[in-house]
Amino acid sequence: MIFFLFIVVLLVAYYIGHRIFIHRKTFTGTAKLYGKTVIVTGGNTGIGKATAAQLAIRGARVILACRSKQRGEAAAQEVRTETGNDAVVFMQLDLASQKSIRSFAETFLKAEPRLDLLINNAALAAPGRTEDGLGMILGVNHIGPFLLTNLLLERLKECAPSRVVNVSSCGHDLGTIDFDCINTHKKLALGSSDVDLFRAYTHSKLCNVLFTHELAKRLEGTNVTCYSLHPGSVRSELARDINEWHTRIIKAIISKFWATDPVSGAQTTLYCALQENIEHLSGRYFSDCQLVQVKPEARDDGIAKKLWDISEKFCGMA
């Protein structure tokens, strides 16, 4: 098992080193966001926190939507201090609970008159099941953002032009959608080993791309646009639920390929959120602040529609 894991890690390192970090671009747009309201899920750490800070610097009212009240409030205070923007607030959101997602949306819609930008950033690679009986990775990485986005769509339309940004990963290239597994087990892959979790994670990132593809079709004519992206691999807490010893091996081998900090990883998110004149590219996928063509499965209308229909069923929206 250890030897197999070592081989997998080497392959991942090769993939990252040769396909992602040849160079990294920086978003240079000058858009200001005064009077605009933004939600960033998972905004208390890593890329999410770096994204939130950059949006706050530009004048936005930023909602950090996070599971942990203690960590979320601490992060909001840090971003306020760092940016000088007092309009950075924490709101509790647990993407592993549809009850929490609905409560968050209800509270937000009552309290906040605007929503100009929704950034679905939070993700994990954890075993187990959600409160609603879904595989944790499927529930948090896809179904949670799917439900949250749909609950907030009307407000986004009211405030248009507005955007939805779904943080995916280059790992979606390695993913596939097994509808039999999803329907039968409510999971993206069976098993709970680190290799199984990695596989399920790549599948969930493909779900993000397909969700964005279908969402764009449904938003045509609304002046709400959406984009998916690979943010760049940075030091974050994504693998916090993977075996600690295995995580240390992975970090030791591929750390030289990682971006230097979360700010670097936030650049493509900022590009998709703020770049001017990309509305005609709604539904597309970006990496390193530029458009990237995805594999056929990731832009298949039939697969995207089927995933949407199943997601509605799992959310009780069908």
**Helix count from the secondary structure assignment:** 11
Radius of gyration from CA coordinates:
18 Å
Give helix % range. 40-55%
Distance between the termini: 42 Å
Mind describing the biggest β-sheet? 8 strands, mixed
Record the strand order, biggest sheet: 3-2-1-4-5-6-7-8
- The string of secondary-structure elements, in order, is HEHEHEHEHEHHEHHHEEH
GO molecular function: oxidoreductase activity
Keywords: Oxidoreductase
Protein name: Dehydrogenase/reductase SDR family member 13-like
Family: Belongs to the short-chain dehydrogenases/reductases (SDR) family.
Care to describe what's here?
With 318 residues, this protein is an alpha/beta fold. Helix content is 48%, strand content 12%. Strands 3-2-1-4-5-6-7-8 form an eight-stranded mixed β-sheet, with helices on both faces. Belongs to the short-chain dehydrogenases/reductases (SDR) family. It holds the Pfam family adh_short.
